[in-house]
Structure formats: structure tokens, C-alpha cells
Amino acid sequence: MEFLLLWADELDDALAVLRHYAPRILGLIAALALFAATGFALVYAPQVTLVAFAVISSATLFETLRRRRARTASDPSE
What we know:
This protein is mainly α. The chain folds into 2 domains: 1-43; 45-78. It has helices at residues 2-44, 46-73. The longest helix is centred in the N-terminal third of the chain and has 43 residues, at 2-44. It starts with a helix and ends in a 5-residue tail after the last helix.
């Protein structure tokens, strides 16, 4: 009987750890899926994929510049 109680306690601890790390595990799985999808897209439709990369990179760059300008404009130390 004690063996079953110890087993149930270990199972409960394992489930708690799994629940704690679930967002990180799912994030890793999503990142790996996006990486695989990107490789697949680069092989089968390189022009479209590269255009998508360029658009995303440009949008990211413009957003970074906008945030930097907003931060420096609201900075009272200058």
C-alpha cells in the first residue's frame, strides 16, 4: 500500500512539473514547427518566402525605430 502512495505522490509531482513547464515546451514545439515550415517554404516557394521575410523584417525595423523615437521624445533627461 505504501508503494502505491509513493507512486501516486511521484505522479502528482511529475504532473505539477509538467504543468509548470508546459508553456515552455509548447513554445519550443511551435518554434521547431515554424523552423520546419520555413525550410519547407524556402525549398518549394523561395521567392514568396523571401518576400515575406523582407516584409516582416521591414515591419520589425520600422516598429523598433518608432519605439526608439517615442522613447527619446518622452525622455525628460535630454
